[in-house]
Design a protein that fits this description.
This protein is an alpha+beta fold. Helices cover about 35% and strands about 35% of the residues. The protein is built from two helices and eleven strands; from the N terminus they run αβββββββββββα. Strands 1, 3, 4, 7, 8, 9 and 11 form a seven-stranded antiparallel beta sheet that branches. The chain has a four-stranded antiparallel beta sheet with strand order 2-10-5-6, with no helix packed on it. Helix 1 runs antiparallel to helix 2. The longest helix is centred in the last third of the chain and has 35 residues. The radius of gyration is 25 Å and the shape is elongated. It starts with a helix and ends in an 8-residue tail after the last helix. The model has no long low-confidence stretch (mean pLDDT about 85).
Length: about 180
C-alpha cells in the first residue's frame, strides 16, 4: 500500500475516533467547567469583570457518577458569596437561564456582577439533598465549542483523508500503463 493511501486511512481512522469520542462525551454528560457538591463551600474565580452565574447542574456527570436531580433548585438552600477579602458580594436570584447539550442540563440559580477579576468563595447553606453547582459566565459559544470541538476535528481529519485519497487516485490515473517491454 502506498504511503499516501496509508496517510489517508490514518486520517479517516482519526476522524472516526474523534467523532466517537465526542459523541461519547456528550452522551456521558460531563460539565464543561469545574463543578462542586453542595451544601458546603467552594472557591471559584472570575477571569475578567462581568456577570457570573451560579449554575445548578441537575443532570450531569460528577466524579464518575451520573447525577440527576429535580430541575427546581431547593428553596431551603441559601447562597452566600464573598470576594477574596471575605467581603459579601451581592447575589441576585435569577432562574431565567438554562442550557442543555447531550446529557448535561443546567439552570441558573443567580448571579453576581464581578467588578474585578478574582477568586470568590461560594457558600451554600441549608438542609437539602446534595446538588452539583458551577460558577461561570453564560457563554453559549464557549459551551458549544467545548462540547462540539471534537466533531469539527473529525471533519478536518475526514477532509484531509479525502483529499489525500483523491490525490492518490489522481496520481495513479496519471501514471502511464506498464508496457510489455517494461
Amino acid at each position: 500500500m502506498k504511503s499516501m493511501q496509508k496517510f489517508s486511512l490514518a486520517m479517516f481512522f482519526l476522524a472516526f475516533v474523534s467523532f466517537v469520542w465526542t459523541f461519547y462525551e456528550l452522551n456521558r454528560g460531563a460539565g464543561h467547567e469545574p463543578q462542586f457538591e453542595v451544601p458546603g463551600t467552594f472557591r471559584s474565580s472570575a477571569d475578567q469583570p462581568g456577570r457570573y452565574y451560579v449554575w445548578d447542574n441537575h443532570l450531569t456527570m460528577f466524579e464518575g457518577t451520573k447525577i440527576q436531580r429535580d430541575e427546581k433548585f431547593p428553596e431551603e438552600l441559601e447562597i452566600i458569596i464573598r470576594d477574596a477579602a471575605g467581603n459579601p458580594v451581592e447575589f441576585v436570584a435569577d432562574t431565567s437561564k438554562s442550557w442543555r447539550i447531550g446529557n448535561h442540563d443546567k439552570s441558573s440559580v443567580g448571579y453576581i456582577d464581578a467588578k474585578v477579576p478574582g477568586e470568590f468563595e461560594i457558600e451554600v447553606r441549608g438542609d437539602a439533598e446534595t446538588r452539583i453547582l458551577s460558577f461561570s459566565q453564560p457563554d453559549l459559544f464557549k459551551e458549544l465549542r467545548s462540547a462540539l470541538m471534537g466533531f469539527a476535528v473529525a471533519a478536518v481529519f475526514a477532509l484531509v483523508g479525502a483529499i489525500a485519497m483523491l490525490l492518490s487516485i489522481f496520481r495513479r490515473a496519471r501514471r502511464p500503463a506498464p508496457t510489455a517491454t517494461d
